[in-house]
Amino acid sequence: MAPLISIRTSNGKLEIVNQLLLPHTTEFIEIDSVEDAHDAIKTMKIRGAPAIASLAALSLSQHIKRGLAVSLSDSPEWLQSQEALKKHIDGILAFLYTARPTAVNLGAATRRLQKTLDSGIAAGKGPHVIAEELVAEANAVADEDVGRNMEMAKWAGEWLWKRVQGYTSAPSSVNVLTVCNTGSLATSGYGTALGMITYLHETGKLQKAYYTQTAPYHQGSRLTALELQTLQIPSVMICDTMVGSLFQHHDIHAVVVGADRIAKNGDTANKIGTYNAAVLAARHKVPFIVVAPISTVDLDIENGTQIPIEQRPALEACLVRGVPYPNNGQADQVQIMITPAGLEGIYNPSFDVTPAELITAIVTEKGVAVKAEGASTFDLSAIVKLL
Ligand code: MRU
């Protein structure tokens, strides 16, 4: 079966799969403006660090293309001068940037587009030329994602494979655990951590992929489950509370996760529950691998304490969504409240930070970074600048 997709552009339309309705309903919704894109990201109809950056960029591209499509004499006011273009695009980029705070990819994409805008202006180019350049750059943000995912997946898969071949009793295939959803739905295609799992499967090196349900949003049980099922990758779902038990009773060769932001020293923000898995992995001497594009590394942040952590609405931790069970042909989804009504005092951070000390390797499209002998942190500035 073909891999799932998060974003599609066809017949001049920009559409996303409404991930709130997966896995039971596949509904494409049209993104017709930058406001629609902002809302879809904020309400998590689309999620996953690279996917939200791609959608933000593509919505800007769509907006500019519409302006460029009208005849010169009818051009919108914002295309009439450099100053007007700058004011207009500055405003859109600032707005898109506020959609979700933790994933650095969104900021990296808006900064990249800002640079295209500002350098076009500094070079004295006309507004139409700069607008064309912005469209090309915005499309590149989305298009580049798939290729680099395949590269990082291969680096990560081969690195793990080489490592386990050095074990006294080398396994003939590996079991890996992942958290959240980092596959095609979270990116423009193939995925990061789930990309590594796919690569291991495609090359005959994977025994089983285990994944946590990832409460409260259930990116694991709703989205990763669907992706692995679609790709026919042998897999096992576990509840978030079962990671310790899994390590005690099963041979798990690695934990592999994605990232929303990686600080200069390697501290990594990812979906809530990642830190728990890292602590348990360290206790059980299971390698802990982070797979993410270089654009996820934020060199402006020294360590994880400076990463802004998004707090989601309390209500989201009180609700589950699904279809009635047993399902007697009622396809309609329902939301069920699992807490007493009016419950107060709910802690609902969307992400946690795994300290670099607990991370064995950080893998990007350019290769594998490990810590220097005896070090408890990474020096990613050296690596990122070298690349
Ligand atoms: O809140 P979400 O679903 O956007 O969180 C997603 C994650 O934490 C992913 O692991 C991360 O964005 C990497 S996706 C390739």
Account of the protein in words:
- With about 375 residues, the chain is of the alpha/beta class.
- The protein has ten helices and 16 strands.
- It has a seven-stranded mixed beta sheet with strand order 6-5-4-7-10-15-16. Strands 11-8-9-14 form a four-stranded mixed beta sheet, covered by helices on one side.
- Strand 8 and strand 9 (about 270) form a beta hairpin.
- Helix 2 runs antiparallel to helix 5.
- The protein is globular and about 70 Å long.
- About 45% of the residues are buried.
- The mean pLDDT is about 95.
- Bound molecules: 5-S-methyl-1-O-phosphono-5-thio-D-ribulose.
- 5-S-methyl-1-O-phosphono-5-thio-D-ribulose binds near residues 50, 103, 187, 219 and 350.
- The site of 5-S-methyl-1-O-phosphono-5-thio-D-ribulose has 17 residues, from helix 2 and strand 9.
What is this structure's SSE topology?
Layout: E1 7-10, E2 13-17, E3 28-30, H1 34-42, H2 49-69, H3 82-97, H4 104-122, H5 127-165, E4 174-178, H6 193-202, E5 206-212, H7 219-230, E6 235-238, H8 243-249, E7 254-257, E8 261-263, E9 268-271, H9 274-283, E10 288-291, E11 297-298, E12 319-322, E13 334-337, E14 351-354, E15 361-364, E16 367-369, H10 380-386
Parallel strand pairs: 4-5, 4-7, 5-6, 7-10, 8-11, 10-15
Antiparallel strand pairs: 1-2, 2-3, 8-9, 9-14, 12-13, 15-16
Helix pairs in contact: 1-2, 2-4, 2-5, 3-4, 4-5, 5-6
The protein binds 5-S-methyl-1-O-phosphono-5-thio-D-ribulose.
The site of 5-S-methyl-1-O-phosphono-5-thio-D-ribulose has 17 residues, from helix 2 and strand 9.
